[in-house]
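ugh ok so i messed up the first submission bc i forgot one of the chains. this is the corrected input, ALL of the components this time, i swear. 652 residues overall. if the numbers dont match what u have on ur side tell me asap before i send this to the collaborators (the ones from the other lab, u know who)
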Amino acid sequence: MENLVILTTGGTLDKDHDTFTESLVLGAENVTNVPELLRIARTHFPRVQPIMSLDSLDMTEAHREQILGAVKIVPEQHVVITHGTGTMDQTARFLDGKTGDKTVVLTGALRPFALGKSDAGFNVGGAIIAAQTLPPGVYAVMNGRVFKPDGVKKDPKSGRFDL
Amino acid sequence: MENLVILTTGGTLDKDHDTFTESLVLGAENVTNVPELLRIARTHFPRVQPIMSLDSLDMTEAHREQILGAVKIVPEQHVVITHGTGTMDQTARFLDGKTGDKTVVLTGALRPFALGKSDAGFNVGGAIIAAQTLPPGVYAVMNGRVFKPDGVKKDPKSGRFDL
Amino acid sequence: MENLVILTTGGTLDKDHDTFTESLVLGAENVTNVPELLRIARTHFPRVQPIMSLDSLDMTEAHREQILGAVKIVPEQHVVITHGTGTMDQTARFLDGKTGDKTVVLTGALRPFALGKSDAGFNVGGAIIAAQTLPPGVYAVMNGRVFKPDGVKKDPKSGRFDL
Amino acid sequence: MENLVILTTGGTLDKDHDTFTESLVLGAENVTNVPELLRIARTHFPRVQPIMSLDSLDMTEAHREQILGAVKIVPEQHVVITHGTGTMDQTARFLDGKTGDKTVVLTGALRPFALGKSDAGFNVGGAIIAAQTLPPGVYAVMNGRVFKPDGVKKDPKSGRFDL
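and heres the new structure output, hopefully the right one now
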């Protein structure tokens, strides 16, 4: 029941502290910490395919078309997409109804993996299980909950994805 | 769709390095790192109820009866149990068929949470999703995979739960 | 040979990731991670006294007067000051020649303590030893080296304090 | 004022959790985490030379002769030795008076570097400064304090090196 791929698009999960600018930045294009996250998780099976490296606030319709294209073209039926939390809801609604018999699960993190004490491992661990157990469709998994595209909503006060 | 509780029983997940004996030990009875793990995961919703604090190699039939009793008595329908990996398969088979309409998911870790670079967050994150998405029954979730009681088996060579 | 105090002033060492603004920020006034750093270092002896909580780029002559006042008034003869790296050189030169028979050592970090994989523990560990072993005067200790006030200089290319 | 080398001999600092035996073990001979510790500390200057990889309780007179030989033969005048805490006092007294005009500083850790929340970086940071600031002789630096060979003593109750 593997048949699972992780597509990475950037977002907070993959940011790190930059000494020179003293800010959080994404690495060079297609650089992702997801393989290291999986190594620590001791789960070596999902293939990881970086498709872009963006702050999700910079994501345009063209980027969402590119993500949809990647979901369709990969051979796996179960797809996890790592994504910034800022516009995860928009991408979920964009993909909704267009992904055929695939189970697609968006996830991300509120604190970068590279900073430690991050929710990244917990969220990706949940998304990988959701992608294997849920029926075809588009979902988001954040902080222990499964959301349908209409229910994905980051609470700006708590910084969490609450129902 | 919360209605979820985490019962903790000890195991590697909750061990830590002891300066004096230079070995890995469990804390005092009922001490667990799961609340701290959930804080980092930024998922505050599951209630955590410690029921014992044991290396799973020391677990007896009486302990398994105690776990079963706790599963039955808690009001939640979705139950995650943190458990040592050494005898997780025995407890899964012990519980199998006795838990009514509850969804029960065993999980644990191969490296203690307190040592960093642990699979604990990833595994618990997966188990929490599995407990909400799978039909009633007994399962184990380890390192990105869902196992039925007959399929739970730690590979002593790889230290992983492989199919 | 203790007779040592740590005065904290803020700087990168004490910044942390803020979920809402997605930037690195200092906590509320006088909040510092130095006591937690000392707990991990298992060195409980230095008294920690927060005197301000500033990005060192925002530090004015008035703040430097306040630091000098604190150095003079504390009863300890050996003083470590945690400080942002951006203007550590200016504060070192400001204090130089004004601190009597005290040994004063400035230190800081290029990556926040709270982000993990930080140089904070290493730098503070070095500064505490320098404050006990060097003759009276003003110094900076960063990344394994001792600098006199004239030699404190952050290399903007390497992000290190090179000779 | 560099002219500094770090000789590694093993000890708790370099242990890690082993999944299969569930205990703390040293890696293969001459494997050490000190280069990674220095990378995080952003201090690239000290040469690191592994000379053995032992639990210090297994250290014999022959091993101490080997350490003394290494101290004498390296070209650097300032020498830090990473060492297990169990017999650091014996090695300090063995080396005392035999190291000519070199400044030799023993250090170690009470919690392995690889387990996180370790005192290793703090201790090595202090030892590197001590080796540059103290006159020739043999010392130990642990948890913020400098000890002469006669004063090195691990308190079995607190797990610290107290005066």
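quick check: Chain C has a mean pLDDT of 91. that seems consistent at least. Helices of chain C lie at 34-41, 61-73, 88-95, 120-133.
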